[in-house]
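Dear support,

Our group has been running a series of protein-ligand predictions, and this particular one with pyridoxal-5'-phosphate is the one our PI (initials K.S.) wants archived with full inputs and outputs. We had some confusion internally about which version of the output was final, so please treat the block below as the authoritative record. The input we submitted was:
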Amino acid sequence: MTRAHSSIEPGGGAQESLEARLAKERRKFAILAERSYFAQQCLGACPLGMAEDLRAYGLSLTRRSRAIPEWAERWEEMHALVERLVAAPAGSVFLRDSATAAQATVAASVEPEGERRRILVGEADFHSSRYLWRAQERRGFEVVEVKHDDFVSYVDERVRIVAASLVSPRTGAMIDARAVAQAAQRSGAIFVLDAYQAVGVVPVDVGALGAHVIVGGFHKWVGGGGTGLAFGYVEPALSASLEAVFPGWMAHRDVMAFADRFEPARGAEKLQQGMPAMEPIYTTRAGLQWIAAVGIEAIRARSVELTSRLYDSLTEAGLTVITPRDPEKRGGMLCVDVPDGKHVVERLAEEGIDIDARPGAGIRIGPHACSTLDECDALARRLAEVTS
Ligand SMILES: Cc1ncc(COP(=O)(O)O)c(C=O)c1O
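Confirmed final output from the archive:
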């Protein structure tokens, strides 16, 4: 199947300020007109194009079997958009229904090798990933949980897999992925990086990061509408040596051949499985196109501006931000230690301000790139009042 080209609008002129450019873009996000939206780390705001794509999906359902060529085209287009999002070479990305499933597929293809049987997992990483890696103990692995900043010092000849989040969902802190990748490469370990809380707000470039595997998904910072879609990138050299342990027809070299024997796809697509959910294939496209059009560097620059302003206002108001102050060491959200996060979230929601709370993280605040400094100031003020 050939890759369909997506319609990506050109970016704005260089002479226009970033703030002015993003103020214009704000109209494309319905929820930003209704709410002060700071829950990007949970479910990101979707561009208006998402609803049109959802309608197109609905229409395709009525065409039944005649919809299949369009679905195949959208599927291919999604691979191309994801490859663009993470600057990955063609054929190095596979699609699955969740980031846990994407990591599980890789995990299943890797065995312990003699004394090299350790899996390092971050203790502030996503709980679902930690369940998955811990469960590999029954396959002869030994799992060691390490602090988010400590990966490098734990990588040695006993380590088979290093599994880390680029941005922790519990603290908002970002690891030095390059340093971990170098340590893993030196010692011969496989580095699996969960970039879910980074893609769409922090530049993720597979070549620059150097991880062997990168997983992520779309319904947070990317602004994908539907759930049930995630991706995995596999470095081509590793991909060539990985065997697909649970393949399905979407992993075949020639998907529409209905062949009796399994012949794996040449790249990472061999890690796919059966019939995918098509709805998120439609409803994720607009978010990816918006990021490509605005540019991830611009999004990151604005996100840093907004979160830095928030950081200062929150700490001046006496609140404890557990996320590092240094923008190089954090993603797009700030975590604030408050006694009853759930109550604070509910109070603010009544006033039209959306944040979220997680055990161990306190409250989490993730502005959209089109949020304003005024919204940040108002949020910091209300948080100080509600928690005093
Ligand atoms: C760091 C991180 N990884 C992964 C996920 C999602 O994983 P899954 O797609 O398996 O639900 C989340 C949040 O939902 C997350 O915060």
